[in-house]
TrEMBL record:
Protein name from the UniProt record: Putative repeat protein (TIGR04076 family)
Domain of life from the UniProt record: Bacteria
Amino acid sequence: MPKIKITIIESRCRGGYCKTNDVFIVEDLCPPLCHELWHSMYPFVYALQNGANLDYGNKKRPMFDMKCPDEGRVVIHAERIEEQS
């Protein structure tokens, strides 16, 4: 299954889970993120892991951006990492 790289672009996280420039690689387990943020992004992560390309600007790409449901306090960028042969 492809890996998904999640980068924290901006963080004002009240729970202290996310810091700006943190990077998480998702393989098969939830990374150490707050449940609200993970619950919001999981459908997109699952889609990328299963080969989907998502709307990204005017194109379909294997990535997405999202803001935390807690007033957008955390901004993430996620992208599928292609396997190296």
